[in-house]
Each structure stands twice: as structure tokens, then as C-alpha cells.
Amino acid sequence: MQGRVTFTATVVSGLLLALGIGVMFLAVTAHPVGAAEVALAVAMILGFFASLAAVAWVVRYAVKRALRPVRTMRDELGTISDHRNIRRVTVPSTHDDVADLARCVNVALDRIEQLVERQRAFAAEASHELRSPLTGLRTRLELGLEHPEEEDWPETARAVLDDADRMQQIIADLLTMAKLEAGVLGTRGPIDLGELVRAETARRRQRVPIEIETDEGVMVSGARTHLIRVLTNLLDNADRHARTWIRVAVGTDGRDALLMVADDGPGIPPEERERVFQRFQRLDEGRRCEPGGTGLGLAISRDIAKAHGGELFVGDSPGGARLVLRLPLIGAQDPASSAPPVSTTR
């Protein structure tokens, strides 16, 4: 037979997935093929690569479309330049993880904005509280210098010292609050609440008598100096407003220790029970802070309670005020085996 035998490569289309790499393999045959088979092989090769390119483009488009809300959130967060421009991000209409992420971001922004507002208000209130004694001090000295021969200088010196003491107390309270917010609590250890109450009340000089009722072995874990600060603040508050008596009780309520300080003063209206724990807050009637107070005592006391894993709140009382400190017990006992000495109803 005349003619020439031509050896060509017939492509066997296939894709081997090995180590994540697509491998094209060729099978070589030794029989003559026609032009149609060659064209078919070329078409299969070109079709494969065209399909691969199409799949890559579709995947890229789908990923880009899915991440478009994330890029939008990134751009919107980038527009937040300071605390006065805390905008919320757009929540996609889809019900997927991206929408959940947007909602979480907005919740975080809400908290940040509230924190910034509280800090701004606190700074304004602190500056006002410091400005008041400074103004009084300056006025007293200026009047004395204008009429030095008529001024009672010993009395002026006492007034100046009183104003200086007030400023010093405000600054000390501000530093305490800053440490509590930073988580600086100090050395913690086991504390017998009953023993702490008896020791601290014994060294105080009260305007009215204090009745003490404590259970034995009410143990909590805490920083002693801070818990003394809470007790002192509660006793100071009661002493300012009590008419004839103050009552201090220590006991347990299930898995918690309770320290209650009550008085027979004008009491705290239910609608004011949260406001008394705000910084620099004073009630409009009855229970006003004395002139030497800083307005931070109860706010600091609640922060200390929270730092110890507890709470401080105003309990119900038929007359006067009842403030209750609740702290976790060391070695929690069976709730059914203890009876609380105070009502914790809020």
C-alpha cells in the first residue's frame, strides 16, 4: 500500500485531582487518524480550558458579590472619624452570616456611643464639682485681700481648708473609680463579713445608735479595703439621713451573702432607686447629700460590688431606706438551709 502512516496523539479528556492540582493526561496511540479526529481533540482541549475559565469567572463573581456588604461595612466604618460621628452600618436584607455580622457591629457601636456619652457627661460633672470649691476658695481669698483689716483670717483659713479637703476627696474618688474601671481591685482573700461589720462600726462615731445583727461564718472573697469602703459609704449615707436609728444585718440568702444597712430617715422613692447610684446625683427631696459629700459614694460602692461579682441595690422598706449588698459566698450552701435576714425584693 502506498502512502505514509502518520502517528498522532489522540487526547483522552480527564482530570486527575491529586494534591489539589488538576493534571491533564494524554494517551498516545500508534494508528493513523483523520483530520476530523484531530479537530475533535483540539475542540475538546479548547472546550475544557474555556469551561475552566468560565467556572473561575463565576466563582470570582459570586465571591465578590457575597463580600460586597462586607466592603460596604468597611467603608462605612472608615467614615467614623471621632466620637461625634458614630454612624451605624447598613444591615443587608439577606438572612445570612454577613447580616448577623452587621447587626453585631451596630450593637458594638451602640455600646461605644453610650460609653462615650457617659464619659463626656462624667467629665462635665466632675469639672463642675471641682469648680465649685475652687470658686468658693478663690472668692473667700479675694474678699479677704480686699479688706484685710476686717477679715477673720483664722476662719478664712478653715474655710479654705474645707474647700481643699472637698477637692482632695473628689480627686481621690475619681482615682478610685478609674482603678475600678481598669480592673485594679487589689489583693483578694477570704473575709468574714460579720467580723468586718463589727470591727468597722466599733471605730465609728455615729450621730445615732447602730443596731447590729450578724450571722457567724458568712465568708466572701474580696479586697478588704474596698469592702470597708462600701460599708463606710453605706453607713455615712445612713448617718446623714437617719432620725433615731441605723440597723446593720449580715446573713445569707441561698448561695449569696447579704449585708444590709437600713435607717429610719425619709427613705428613697421607688422611681429614684437607680438614680441614687449615678455619679454626682442627689435626690430632690429629703435625702440630699451633705455639703461635704462628693456625690460619688454610692456609685463607687456599686462599682466595687460589681467588681466582686455581686450587686448593690435599694431594697423595699416600710420606712426609711434599706441598701443591700449581695456577694457570692465562699463554699455556696444549699439554698434551702438558710433564711435571709433581709428582704431582697427590689
From TrEMBL:
InterPro entries: HAMP_dom, HATPase_C_sf, HATPase_dom, His_kinase_dom, HisK_dim/P_dom, HisK_dim/P_sf, Sig_transdc_His_kin-like_C, TCS_sensor_his_kinase. This is histidine kinase. Residues 64-117 form the HAMP domain. It catalyses: ATP + protein L-histidine = ADP + protein N-phospho-L-histidine. The lineage of its organism: Bacteria, Bacillati, Actinomycetota, Actinomycetes, Streptosporangiales. Its main location: membrane. Its EC number is 2.7.13.3. Residues 125-331 form the Histidine kinase domain. It comes from Actinomadura viridis.
